[in-house]
Amino acid sequence: MRWGTSVRGSNGWRGMNEDQADAASLDQNVFLIGRPPLEEFLGFVATLSPEGEAVDLGGLTAQWRLANDHVKKLELEEAGHADNPPVDELPSSLNQLARGIFADPVFQRSFQLVPTSVGLVELDRLVVFQKHINLNFIEDLKRALGAEPSDAELLSFCLPTRPSLPPVRRLRVAQNAWTFVSASTDLRFLEPVLFEPTQITGYRPSGRVAAVVGLVVGYGSNYLNALKVGGRLILNNGSHRAYALRDIGIRKAPCVIQDVTRREELPVVASSEVVAHPERYTEAPRPPMLKDYFDERL
Questions:
Q1: Do the bridges between strand 8-9 and strand 87-88 make them parallel or antiparallel, or are there none, so unpaired?
Q2: Residue 185: CB partners within 8 Å, gap ≥ 6?
Q3: What is d(CA 223, CA 241) in angstroms, rounded to the nearest whole number?
Q4: Mean per-residue pLDDT for 242-253?
């Protein structure tokens, strides 16, 4: 289902009436409906749409029920469709670029926990857990990629080793508090690190330093990657890029594949949603798939 949400201003979400809500001031979204939880869909629309709490929740619930009927039909007609999707090798012309990906220290650090490979995956058969896609961001991605990317451009788009990162604004808002601001939603807290005093340069301490605790802020590895779990490929990162590729007609894309061989590995490689509800994605006869974003009934 397509939905418009109000844009975030400097003081939070900026509500708008119908006259104000023109295309320039709205983020257009696709939101998958028809599967639990219904309350997440209603909360998304009520919180972020221009209508706010005045939105017709009864009408939305009726639409959700229709979509749920369609989901039940798909569970019968397409049972097993997510199982054992083919994974093709990259074209030989990309071997040198692929070696550069495996040599990237960020790649090595990000994908060290389970067996990992790179291959061409069929986008439509990827299992997805992300409920909504921001179409404004999709248009930005499509402009950056171009309508007919080469194999090398496609690989760089999906598995960037030298991504162009937006600047980060750093604001000290209290004696022991900082705010970091970026145009990218990928800005995040990465990890805590314990440094030895000899590792820190340019700092003049006010006392005798024993150790330094660092809170690392930055961008994730940002590789298009999927988890191979029980013969299925669950899209773990890169939902917007996968959608953008599918939207311009590309059906297969380079992807990092992490081979999860047992359930105990999920908590260290999967998203919190997959960890909390693995049965929705690994056991359901017909789980949500990338092609569902393009099904108007969903």
A1: unpaired
A2: none
A3: 10
A4: 96
Token look-up 């760089």 returns: 156
pLDDT the model gives residue 21: 43
Q: Domains for the chain: give ranges and CATH numbers.
A: 2-77 (no CATH), 87-163+222-294 (3.90.1530.10), 169-219 (no CATH)
Which range among 136-145, 181-190, 191-200, 287-296 shows the weakest confidence by mean pLDDT?
A: 181-190
Q: Using 50, 70 and 90 to split pLDDT, how confident is the model at 187?
A: confident
Contact yes or no for 97/155 (Cβ under 8 A): yes
Any idea which residue has 């896609």 for tokens? 133
C-beta separation of 297 from 33 below 8 A:
no
**Residues belonging to the chain:** 298
Q: What confidence tens digit (pLDDT) does each residue in 251-283 have? A: 999 999 999 999 999 999 999 999 999 999 999
Q: Describe the crossing of helices 95-103 and 151-158 by its angle, rounded to 10 degrees.
A: 20
**What predicted TM-score, i.e. pTM, was given to this entire model?**
0.84
Residue located via tokens 């009436």? 17
Quote the radius of gyration of the chain (alpha carbons, Å). 22
Q: Which residue has the higher pLDDT, 130 or 14?
A: 130
CB contact at 8 A, 194 and 213: yes
CA distance 290 to 30: 12
